[in-house]
Amino acid sequence: MSQAVWSAVDAYFSASLLPEDPVLEAALRDSDAAGMPSHHVAPNQGKLLQLFAQMCGARRVLEIGTLAGYSTIWLARALPEGGKVVTLEANPQHAEVARRNIERAGLAHKVEIRVGKGAETLPLLVAEGAGPFDLIFIDADKPSNPLYLDWSLKLTRPGSVIIGDNVVRNGAVADPTSEDANVIGVRRFFELMAAEPRLSATALQTVGSKGYDGFSLAIVQG
Question: pTM for the full model?
Fold first, then answer.
């Protein structure tokens, strides 16, 4: 199988199940125009995030890694009135693009963007008593995944869902000798999830328009 086939299948899924969405398409165009990396989720993956949020009845969502706000829009659309997505972005320029995209989507009242490194913004959320969040989506720098998991456990409750994106690293996650900081971060993330009695977790490999990758899914237990 090839990347062309994976992309064609994703395009078929999206054409079959996802109506055209000018707001999301504009968000991607603005991301490209700003020279931002193409790290956003695919449309069918965005819809999956929305469904996960709806399945767990989320009212409060924490997103670690905003980029251009593409996945933020999917998540915010899942929330009822009065719901809130708090999204953390280290890069001020990226945060500004995301802010414009979220405003154009009519979701500014549901989204709070916090600018700063997660190592700085996550402790502030805990200090403010911002949790518990019903769903946390971790999609930022992979070497910091262990840190993000630690703070996520402080910001959740039994029944909360924690999703980690981009965990396969083109298969390198299975290599214990890898010296890639991203792989090391993801492997440590898995080790911590496995050792944490409060978590019930799994992970899946995926192929599609974004290549060979995958995500982890965990529920916080009592």
Answer: 0.97
